[in-house]
Design brief:
The protein is mainly alpha-helical and 221 residues long. The chain contains 7 helices and no strands.
């Protein structure tokens, strides 16, 4: 059943395409192009800024907190003989070796903790932060850009031949659909990264088999 997950996502992408083309065709070209440009610019700006912002927030505020928490947990567990230790973040990475180290030498685990955190914890945390910041920035930029675009709404009054205006608007709908499907693909990619491979249905192998949605998924990955 899981191997057919791509069908569901392709149908979803097709529905998005149909709705976007229909709506943009009815709205016309000028209105559609202004909206698309503002949304695309907002998305590009949000994506461009979210990556360094996520890394900065992680390095500046979260990394030391995570390191300290794990270090303290290790110290407590070593002093109590590792009773009931089920480390949620670094199971099997540090603690298998740590059990053979004398509690008085816990400081020797510093480099191992840093390596494990940077390798196992940092990527999903940064990926999650990036999605959060990208979403927030996109909304902010979109609101600002639409305020700016509203100044040019008079352009919509320029008379165009009806069928041509609708046809060009429909083409813009394709762009809108691509932007929406790309955003959904980014969300699924982030989910797979955070969960270390995804689940039975939503995983890289299943989503890479299709056509419409899978194309965007391969782009973001």
């Amino acid at each position: 059943m899981g191997e057919f997950t791509w069908v569901i996502f392709d149908v979803l992408a097709l529905l998005v395409l149909i709705i976007a083309v229909t709506k943009c065709a009815s709205g016309g070209f000028v209105k559609g192009v202004l909206g698309l440009v503002s949304a695309a610019a907002s998305a590009i700006g949000a994506i461009w800024l979210s990556a360094p912002l996520a890394v900065f927030i992680y390095e500046r505020f979260l990394r030391s907190v995570i390191m300290t928490s794990i270090y303290n947990q290790l110290t407590e567990q070593m002093e109590t003989g590792f009773a009931g230790l089920v480390p949620a973040l670094l199971a099997g990475i540090i603690f298998a070796a740590a059990s053979t180290i004398d509690p008085m030498a816990i400081h020797e685990l510093g480099p191992a903790i840093e390596t494990a955190v940077d390798g196992a914890v940092a990527p999903p945390v940064i990926a999650l932060l990036r999605v959060i910041f990208a979403t927030i920035l996109f909304i902010i930029f979109l609101l600002i850009s639409r305020r700016v675009v509203s100044v040019f709404r008079a352009v919509n009054r320029i008379p165009l031949v009806g069928p041509i205006n609708s046809a060009l608007g429909g083409l813009l709908g394709v762009g809108w659909a691509a932007l929406i499907v790309w955003s959904l693909a980014l969300v699924t990619y982030t989910y797979i990264a955070i969960t270390d491979g995804g689940g039975t249905f939503v995983n890289a192998e299943n989503l890479g088999r299709g056509y419409l949605f899978s194309f965007m998924f391969r782009v973001v990955s």
